[in-house]
Amino acid sequence: MALTGAHYIYILFMIIILITMIMRKESVIPCIIGTFLLGLFYKKSVVGALAGVFTSFVVALEELGPVLLIIGIMVALSKSLEENNAIDFMVKPFSKSIKSSTAAFFVAGTVMFFMSWFFWPSPASALVGAVFLPIALRSGLPAMGLAVAMNLFGHGLALSTDFIIQGAPSITAGAAGIPVEAVIKEGMILYWIMGIVTISVAFYMLRRDLKNGVFDEELATTKDFEAKEIGPKAKISVLLVAIGFILDIVAMYKFNLKGGDASALLGGTAGVLLIIINTMNNPKTTLDKVAEHIIEGFTFAIKVFAVIIPIAAFFYLGDAPIVKVFGDVLPQGSQGLLSDIGVALSQAVPFNKVAAAGIETIVGGITGLDGSGFSGMSLAGSLAAVFGNAININVGALTALGQISAIWVGGGCIVPWSLIAVAAICGVSPVELGKRNFIPVMIGLAVTTIVAIFIL
């Protein structure tokens, strides 16, 4: 079918949004204006366009709401564990076995990886960093090395896979119009190749610099380990959390729970554990403490997702949700703005999977320049749908590739303003940390993109 004015408005604002992100500016305003202009085109009135802007937010929140809720409740649980030093108890056994910089790098990274899966990287950064920093320094791993490990394992590998909470794949899958399971399954080899290559290169560069004495001055002065009192409450809390989440995983396999159902089970379990652990910490303050932790958790979650909602709202208009916002406005034969654009693109421009993979990686990385990693994933998913439908390639794998690029660049590995949490807890410069991560991440993206070309 022929492209309409709405299609050209959508294309124009996709370009404007990309330019905005390249300039390292927030893209909320272009997204709102783009939604408003689409409303004017379809509703032919200012009132209808203004109502459409708000309705698009509501639709986006319907899509993202479950993800926001699960993040909030998980962070709330981590706060209760932090209060009775349960987190320290979880990590303390490692301090006895970490005797070298290599062990410190991979053990700290692995702990960060699993904690980020369940509690999200930002809250995990403060908990893991505070405990592992003195251990790392004693074992010969500089603070910068610990920061790199935490970044790449947590904000990189854990956040880009996100198999447990499924926040990242939910956003990209929603924008691409495919099930979350498709993004996870089809992108599995890409997730691990990106992680293995990037972390291996980063570790090689770190070992080289350690051998050349780059960090000798820093390591000359180590910090003593400040042990925290760990009582029975901490031990029981860890046991309860371990049992709860292990039973959840068993239930997921037994009852074939995936996507939203799996997140709902985890969230409900976290809510019950939050009450039990706070009751155990101090029965007299349970009512107030549970409310306080939930406020902290949801405050964190809304800070992460606040700017994502209007951005996702615009990109969701490229697919089926446009009907919820403006009504049945698509012309006969249209499969949605993005699908129509993809068909037109395939007819007008010679296109192949090499170009599709390359553009998906580049665009994903560009969208990550805003320092979020999440705000650009809707675009990454949308583009994957466009390219996949245009040349009949694996949309799930292409979506995962865009997700990987957006997260590894903007989720806390390269962009300095997204590195502040880890840099602060480790006492290093976020700019220098970004520079050290740059080469490993770029090599990882290059290798992952090449592999993607062969599996699309």
Automatic annotation (TrEMBL):
Biological source species: Romboutsia lituseburensis DSM 797
Keywords, alphabetical: Membrane, Transmembrane, Transmembrane helix
Annotated protein name in UniProt: Transporter
Bilayer-crossing regions: 6-23, 35-58, 64-81, 102-120, 126-149, 189-206, 236-256, 262-280, 300-318, 379-401, 408-431, 437-455
